[in-house]
Amino acid sequence: MTRPPVLIPHASGTNRDQEAAQAVELAGGDARVVHVNRLRNGEVSFAEHAAILLPGGFSYGDALGAGGRLALELRTWFADELETAVRKGRPILGICNGFQVLVKSGLLPGPSDMPRQLTLTENSLGRFECRWVTLRVEESAANSWISSIAGSVIRCPIAHGEGKVAVSDDSIVPALHDRGQIAFRYQAAGPSTAPTHQAAEGIYPANPNGSVADIAGLCDEGGSVVGLMPHPEDHVLDWQRRSGPTGGLGLPLFAAFVEAAR
Amino acid sequence: MTLRIDVTAIDDPEGARVVAGAPLVGVSGLSRCTVTRVHHVDGDLSDDDVERLCSEVLVDPVVDTVKIGLHPQAEGRAVEVAPMPGVTDSDARELEQAARLLGLPPVRVATARRYDLVGHLDDNDVAVLTRRLLANDTIEHALEGELPPEFAGAAEAHVHVDDLELEELSDSELLALSKQRVLSLDLAEMRAIQAHFVAERRAPTDAELETLAQTWSEHCVHKTFRANIQLTHTASDGTVTLSEHDGLLPALRDVTEELDPWWLRSAFVDDAGIIAFDDEYDLAFKVETHNHPSALEPFGGANTGVGGVVRDVIGVSARPIACTDVLCFGPTDLPDDELPEGVLHPRRIREGVIAGVGDYGNKLGLPTVNGTVIYDKGYVANPLVYCGALGLLPHGSHPTQPLVGDHIISLGGRVGRDGIHGATFSSAGMDASTVDTVGSAVQIGDPITEKGVIEVIELARDTKLYNAITDCGAGGLSSAVGEMGEDLGVEVDLAVVPLKYPGLQPWEIWLSEAQERVVIAVSPDKLTELASLCESWDVEPTDLGTFTGSERLVVRHGDTSVVDMPMAFLHDGLPRREMVGVWVDPAPVAVTTPEIDAATVLGLLAHPDVASKEDIVRRFDHEVRGGTVVRPYVGPHADGPADAAVLKPLGTPGTTAAVLSNGICPRVGRHDPWAMALLAIDEAVRNLVAVGGDPDRVAVLDNFCWGDPTKPDRLGSLVRAVQGCTDGARRYAMPFISGKDSLFNEFDGEAIPGTLLISALGLVPDLHQAIDSAGMQVGDELWLVGRGSGALGGSLASELFELGATEVPTPLDDPLPRYRAVHQAIRGGLITAAHDCSEGGLAVAAAEMAIAARRGISIAVPGEQLDPFTALVNEAPGRLLVSAAAADRDAMGLVLGDHGRIIGEVTDGDRITFRRKAGSEEPVLVELTMVEAVQANVGGVSP
């Protein structure tokens, strides 16, 4: 089978690009890490890729707020390319800093959230935190390519300081849900691999950052643009988690992503 | 026109942090604090431009409110804090860049933070808050009210070179000059310089004198470790032994040469030590200290400590893949009136250091996977910050020979006054005036620039674009270029060096320790390719000059001569020191041990050195690069401390993994520095073995942090510790591959406890066989490897219960057989969990294992002619508590032989029970519930 080419843009300060590439390759994709400068000068184009993965890290050292400067660059330099990708329904996945970039560039939650009423901001504890969390892939995100793994559980680490989903008005949450835009929620960690379906209910550390409604990730209304704070790319091999509750690989998420790119 | 734009995040946790921190600095009346980001934007912007800048860049409408062009209304008292002129204002640079991206007219920006403080506060409260919480006066200035903006100017150098007449100077004048310029050179060294220039019939330039001071600094040439030392050692029975030590560093190197295992690639010759990893790759490892800078500016000091050691690893052409950190602080509950003048409170040092370590490692995308934290009054004025870095490089890929005609290219950050005199400052004790005299020794980190350097060097290495590489560390270009050009000679033009801001003199450019720079030697035909590589990764290259073959160090600034000296004098002109050391072993003291009860064990579990450090460790990314197999905290609740970190480097084939561990026991060193070295080595090795590391594939690093070695007692204990290291290397058959000494850790004449960190790097042959301390199953039997000791000197129990013990446990003569046996049992899949006995002895080890696994434990305490207290809390070396299935009892017995025996079992209860003898009918010595143990050790986490 062909390996769909997946663009992984690298900006100064990006750092989880290599693991993201490993996950994409394991899932059957052709991962291509390309520095933003080479996209900008035309050496490599967005159009030659079937999917885009914005990886984690600290693009530009969190200048202008986490993801702020890269979001500004994307809006300034690649607005047409991104608009085309979204229109054609090419899968776009943003992880951690990539999710922040998608939110700050307006791609998530997307046009339904104008003027902006949702953002990613500093964790409730006010500091960077690294720990394993349990995620549930939400069934309600029925339009998205993640629906093929809906209802499953992913265990993977978070590593962020600004991953709290905050809204200016609580009524936005049911609206997001009704539009099928809540893609991932934090869950209580169950002892086995079976999904516990036990919500984190905002309680630390299952919900590690104070996100409203335990939201860990979102998609746009069309479902092609998906973003999440945790790092499923850090749990694509069994040995990456050998102590405590095991199971819940992130690999199926990347398989769904690559499949959607075919 | 200059416009003020104030952005306030209503729920900013920073404000809550200030409110929470106020009582800790003695201010009780602060009820609310609002933090505002202040931007002074100078440029020809229309209203629409300002609106775009705000809506697209500065303001997040969900969390921020904004005020444009208004003077803020003070709500209560207001303090504004801004970077001092010359300190990088990166937020301002980024906003200028954003304005360019948006196509706005050019702007200049200066930023500040504003704190609106509400509550009952008097002038003194505001002053205390400002000084102790809001601003660091080493790099920031603060004002109550509005702080006027200061914009960065054009970065032109101030080209001025002074000649310093030495010929007529008396001895006392030479010493005064050394002190005044923070040269840290002694009289013999100043005289050697004087004689050299008298013979040349000229005066040295300021830059020449400074270059000599850097190159001859303790930091760069390890004068004490190369000195000839006479040691007088008095044993506790009064026996006096005189010995001569012809260099401490050569002694450490000699053992490595003597052992010379086949897998050793490089030791002591480069920025980091290198060992083989698999058929294709090698591992590079280095641990540095950044103590003095962290005492003055904890965030910046620790931040650049990480940056510096990562560059050491880049300096051997390796891709950095992990970080370690070991931190020693004063007690965080130190009463304010016991804090010496001019010293930051341990709480603030701790907070800044942790934030600094996390910020740099996290932003570089490196997992911080191993470390420890120690609290002791001896570290109040001199905290210790050990930062380590592990790197990966293809075998044989590190070039080390520059050629005549090669260009000297520096890559990375721009140059400011940051860190001038860092190398020489680290050779001076501190007192209350230190901040004023060497404030510029503090460095400012920029991890994103260093990240770019990492990417460029990895690609340049793989395409063979350079012939030699070294990092720019202490001494800046003067050390880096001076070392690289030692054999060939170099000519450098400082006029091409990009500066951060105006006014630097040539000698300052030459010495600046501005961070994030490496220097490489590039042949002329590769320059174009390198330039294009740099451009595509946003890294700034500077062509400083060439390797000449003249064997001279020639530095110009345009047409102005700055330095012109023979390399031979620079590198060989330093007189060797003759030094004297004295060590007296303490007399043994009869110790009365208390009864042991649950409170004893809970007290040990709650001691800051033993208690969970999750609140620190979780602020470091220990998962990035996806290679972490055994992480810092393990078990179902991820709160059991792991013994060591196991890492599978991303991109390596096969199943081999690296393991990192450490050993440190300064309490022992107070009584016996020789034993401290051996016991620290043992701790590092048994931690490494506990997770599945092979005891026959271990390399170690030494890091000595000591007081002023010109004082005989300090030097005496240092020599004893080095003797312990060389004895240990032989007993454990493990080579030292690199090291570091940080001396002069004194404040007002008080030294830190001599502190040796042993960092170990080993291999786990198959990552699937790695284990941790939480894997035990109900019904497993618990085996104790090794035997206890009645000597409580240097133990945590002796300190906590004020026993005054001085006799320390006897180091092991022949440790390898037991560790090989344990390793064999792990490889055979017999051992389900393992944990080492260190601080708090068997009692703490058993409790920590029970917590990690959330399983009950029942132990019959081995007799060993020890009273119950001593049996449970002694810290004898070589002991591991391991679990194995009862069905594997015979196999375990066969593999472990005399080294281990069964002392208990894993239960499905929630009790940690110690009895004198096995059997449920036997009387209980100590029993803890899981809830008690977790509360004491972890805090308020679910049991």
CATH homologous superfamily label of chain A:
Class I glutamine amidotransferase (GATase) domain
Major beta sheet of chain B, specifics?
7 strands, mixed
Number of discrete helical segments of chain B: 31
Assess the beta-strand content of chain A as a share of residues: 15-25%
Low-confidence stretches of chain A: none
Strand percentage of chain B: 25-35%
Strand order of the largest sheet of chain B: 16-18-15-19-17-20-21
Q: What coarse outline of chain A follows from CA principal-axis ratios?
A: globular
Structural class of chain B: alpha+beta
- Order of SSEs of chain A: EHEHEHHEHEEEEHEEEH
Number of separate structural domains of chain A: 1
Instruction: Write the CATH architecture name of chain A.
Output: 3-Layer(aba) Sandwich
CATH architecture of the domain at 154-222 and 399-574 in chain B: Alpha-Beta Complex
Gap from first CA to last CA of chain A: 10 Å
What is the multimeric organization of the chains shown? heterodimer
Enter the CATH topology name of chain A: Rossmann fold
Strand order, main sheet of chain A: write it out. 2-1-3-4-11-10-9-6-7
In short:
The complex is a heterodimer of chains A (262) and B (943). Chain A has 262 residues and is an alpha/beta fold. Helix content of chain A is 23%, strand content 23%.
What does this structure look like?
The complex is a heterodimer of chains A (262) and B (943). Chain A has 262 residues and is α/β, with parallel strands linked by helices. Chain A has a single domain, classed as Rossmann fold, CATH 3.40.50. Chain A has helices at 17-26, 36-40, 68-77, 79-87, 97-104, 172-178, 251-261, and strands at 5-10, 30-35, 51-54, 92-95, 118-121, 129-137, 153-160, 164-167, 182-187, 215-219, 225-228. In chain A, the strands form two sheets. Chain A has a nine-stranded mixed sheet with strand order 2-1-3-4-11-10-9-6-7, with helices on both faces. In chain A, strands 5-8 form a two-stranded antiparallel ribbon. In chain A, helix 1 links the parallel strand 1 (5-10) and strand 2 (30-35). In chain A, helix 3 (68-77) packs across helix 5 (97-104). Chain A is globular. The mean pLDDT of chain A is 93. With 943 residues, chain B is α+β, with helices and mostly antiparallel strands. Among the domains of chain B are: 2-144, no CATH class; 154-222 and 399-574, Alpha-Beta Complex (Phosphoribosyl-aminoimidazole Synthetase, Chain A, domain 2); 591-596 and 773-943, Phosphoribosyl-aminoimidazole Synthetase, Chain A, domain 2, CATH 3.90.650. Helix content of chain B is 32%, strand content 26%. In chain B, the strands form eight sheets. Chain B has a seven-stranded mixed sheet, with helices on both faces. In chain B, a hairpin with a 5-residue loop joins strand 24 (633-634) and strand 25. In chain B, helix 12 (298-314) packs parallel to helix 13 (346-364), helix 13 (346-364) packs parallel to helix 16 and helix 24 packs parallel to helix 25 (712-732). The radius of gyration of chain B is 29 Å and the shape is globular. Chain B starts with a strand and ends in a 6-residue tail after the last helix. Residues 435-439 of chain B have low confidence and may be disordered. The chains are: A alpha/beta (262), B alpha+beta (943).
